[in-house]
Amino acid sequence: MNEIVATSTPKPRAGIEGLDVYRVAVQFYRQLRQSTRGRRGHALDQACRAAESVVLNIAEAYPMSGPDRARRFRIAGGEAAECHAGLDLLEIRGELHGGPLTELRGLLDRTRAMLWRLSRP
Q1: 33-68 pLDDT tens trace
Q2: Handedness of CA 43, 78, 62, 104 (dihedral sign)
Q3: 113 closest CA partner among 86, 87, 76, 85
C-alpha cells in the first residue's frame, strides 16, 4: 500500500524573526557562547561584545529605511569583521578549533555577506 505523506511548509516568521540575517547572527552568537563556555580572556570578551553588537545593530536597522537603515547594516558589518578577527585570535590561542570553529566561520560568512548586500542604499 502506498502511503501519501503530507508535508507542511514552515510557518513564515513575523517581524524581525523573518529577517534571515537576524536569525543567522543570533545563531552565531548562541554558538559562540556555547563553544567557549567556561573560557575567559580579552579576545573572547571582545568577540562576544562584537557579536552582540551585530545582533543589536541589525535590530536597530530593521524598522528604518533608506540611508539610515543601510548605515546600521554597515555598522553591523564592521562588528562582524571584528568577530572574524576574534575567531582568528581564539584559534591562534588554541581555544577554538575543529568543527565548532568551522561552523562559526560559516555562520559569520553568511552574516557578513547578507550585511554587505543590505548595507547598499
Answers
A1: 999 998 888 999 999 999 999 999 999 999 999 999
A2: negative
A3: 76
